[in-house]
Amino acid sequence: MRTTLNISMPPLQKKNVDRMIKDYNYASTSEFFRDAVRALEEDKLIKDIMKSEKEFAAGKGRRLRSLKDLM
Question: What's the whole-model pTM score?
Fold first, then answer.
Protein backbone atom coordinates (compact mmCIF):
# COMPACT_ATOMS: atom_id res chain seq x y z
CA MET A 1 0.00 0.00 0.00
CA ARG A 2 1.21 3.52 -0.75
CA THR A 3 0.70 6.74 1.13
CA THR A 4 0.28 10.14 -0.48
CA LEU A 5 2.71 12.85 0.56
CA ASN A 6 2.11 16.50 -0.28
CA ILE A 7 5.09 18.84 -0.33
CA SER A 8 5.55 22.51 -1.03
CA MET A 9 8.58 24.18 -2.59
CA PRO A 10 9.53 27.49 -4.13
CA PRO A 11 8.59 27.92 -7.81
CA LEU A 12 12.22 27.81 -9.00
CA GLN A 13 12.81 24.54 -7.19
CA LYS A 14 9.63 23.08 -8.72
CA LYS A 15 10.85 24.18 -12.14
CA ASN A 16 14.17 22.41 -11.52
CA VAL A 17 12.38 19.23 -10.40
CA ASP A 18 10.23 19.31 -13.54
CA ARG A 19 13.35 19.75 -15.68
CA MET A 20 15.11 16.82 -13.99
CA ILE A 21 12.03 14.62 -14.42
CA LYS A 22 12.14 15.35 -18.14
CA ASP A 23 15.95 15.16 -18.50
CA TYR A 24 16.23 11.83 -16.67
CA ASN A 25 13.08 10.35 -18.22
CA TYR A 26 11.15 9.74 -15.02
CA ALA A 27 7.60 8.58 -15.65
CA SER A 28 6.21 10.77 -12.87
CA THR A 29 7.04 13.17 -10.08
CA SER A 30 6.42 10.35 -7.61
CA GLU A 31 8.98 8.14 -9.34
CA PHE A 32 11.50 10.98 -9.21
CA PHE A 33 11.05 11.52 -5.47
CA ARG A 34 11.07 7.78 -4.66
CA ASP A 35 14.37 7.49 -6.54
CA ALA A 36 15.75 10.53 -4.72
CA VAL A 37 14.84 9.04 -1.32
CA ARG A 38 16.41 5.69 -2.30
CA ALA A 39 19.60 7.52 -3.33
CA LEU A 40 19.74 9.33 0.02
CA GLU A 41 19.19 6.07 1.90
CA GLU A 42 21.94 4.39 -0.11
CA ASP A 43 24.30 7.32 0.49
CA LYS A 44 23.70 7.11 4.25
CA LEU A 45 24.32 3.37 4.24
CA ILE A 46 27.61 3.82 2.37
CA LYS A 47 28.71 6.55 4.79
CA ASP A 48 27.81 4.35 7.78
CA ILE A 49 29.80 1.44 6.33
CA MET A 50 32.81 3.67 5.65
CA LYS A 51 32.64 5.03 9.20
CA SER A 52 32.49 1.49 10.59
CA GLU A 53 35.45 0.43 8.45
CA LYS A 54 37.50 3.38 9.75
CA GLU A 55 36.57 2.58 13.35
CA PHE A 56 37.45 -1.07 12.83
CA ALA A 57 40.79 -0.13 11.24
CA ALA A 58 41.51 2.12 14.24
CA GLY A 59 40.94 -0.83 16.56
CA LYS A 60 37.60 0.39 17.87
CA GLY A 61 35.63 -2.56 16.52
CA ARG A 62 35.43 -6.19 17.43
CA ARG A 63 35.02 -9.26 15.31
CA LEU A 64 31.79 -11.13 15.90
CA ARG A 65 31.98 -14.90 15.94
CA SER A 66 28.21 -15.47 16.12
CA LEU A 67 24.96 -13.56 16.45
CA LYS A 68 25.16 -14.08 20.20
CA ASP A 69 28.10 -11.63 20.20
CA LEU A 70 25.66 -8.84 19.29
CA MET A 71 23.99 -9.09 22.69
Answer: 0.75
